[in-house]
């Protein structure tokens, strides 16, 4: 509390003649010295602290640095204030942050901008800098993650090994890049059926109504035998070759591998035997062609450890096991079958075999060159008194974090998205299935969606949905050109027909998109050929001939639970 004398305001004169104080000439007041005052009316402006209406400030093209008197706070030229020490003090006053805002380093030049922006407040500038720093940090993180993903993909591709050990005595004759395959085209006439063997069971159409909400458990068929017989071990193909029915012989599995070679990532190999004027395409015993690739064309790397349940090898064994059981579960098992001209050529009498029919078909490649292939169909359906052949295959979901799509949530509402994801991750496998359906002239191909009961349980599975597609429409949907498929086969056949008699092997390079041709010894891949043996848990039992060599015993039993554990 201040203590002192009273504060005297002084005399306030009254002006009866108008507004403002009276004329100073009529007043006898002791006014302070050097206090500026000018008479004014109501329309006159009082002294200004800052003048924002000056024309020089609104003209951005004028350089103020050369004329500091243009400051908005400089009233040295104002007649209202006489020149004095106070005016000098005012001329020295400057705005703390009066510099113009910095121009952006990037972005368009605003040529039509007329008004100059006011300087930002200090706190707004700090916030803007923080936001820019966050954006820059996020950009660096994305760049780092992309580089890390690419590095992981490179690490995943690097350890891929060749499907067959290249021996020092093998002679490489040629290597063909996949880029040349995309330009090939060849049209073949409609094939003719030479022979149909086996028997088919009818398809159970109730499986078309399965949804993830009423899923069905995948059953095991341990008593039914499945056959994976190569070309030269097929007694029917031997008979057709002796009858000189064709020049080139193969199976639908081998042909589809060649036709879809540009889509393949993993290594594969096909044995080529030139005998006289005939050409035989074979697969080795225990070849990778007997298994199914999983996530072959995916960008998400799979675990490298072979004993991991999600490694490429373990998933291939699991996929083969699923496909065998699925192809038998979706049938009507009431004993009714459609039998063909000859029984299953690989089954013994009284043996229970899987539902399959073999169509031995012949295509004309040239005036004096024909190709015979053994094609498979797994079921038949009767609609309007017309029988249609079906192929049955199953896609398997092992862990949704690898594909990014949860089938149980998306199959009902976004089935197209699920199919698109599978086409991206398994482009080669689905193209081969489509090619096999086209070779067999199947009327419909059924695709099943089979998932694990739990992501860490690779023994128990459930069927979530079954969808049917017409092969030709599906081929156009996945951009599979039949003319290009046959162009690849025709070019490889022409190349191999120029070789001398002997044995050769086509090997897909594990690191590059190309295929190589090696000349191998005549006893290569035979029982007496010395190679480094595979471990027992990696060996697949090959088809072996009986003592008399008359008929192969190529039955391979369904993969049981313990066998999957051993192989995985």
TrEMBL record:
Residues 54-152, 527-568 are annotated as: Disordered. Coiled coil: none annotated. Pfam families: eIF-3_zeta. Its main location: cytoplasm. Residues 527-549 have a biased composition (Acidic residues). GO terms for biological process: cap-dependent translational initiation; formation of cytoplasmic translation initiation complex. It is found in: Cytoplasm. Residues 54-68 have a biased composition (Polar residues). Residues 69-86, 107-118 have a biased composition (Low complexity). Keywords: Cytoplasm, Initiation factor, Protein biosynthesis, RNA-binding. GO terms for molecular function: mRNA cap binding; translation initiation factor activity. Belongs to the eIF-3 subunit D family. mRNA cap-binding component of the eukaryotic translation initiation factor 3 (eIF-3) complex, which is involved in protein synthesis of a specialized repertoire of mRNAs and, together with other initiation factors, stimulates binding of mRNA and methionyl-tRNAi to the 40S ribosome. The eIF-3 complex specifically targets and initiates translation of a subset of mRNAs involved in cell proliferation. In the eIF-3 complex, eif3d specifically recognizes and binds the 7-methylguanosine cap of a subset of mRNAs. This is Eukaryotic translation initiation factor 3 subunit D. It comes from Quercus suber.
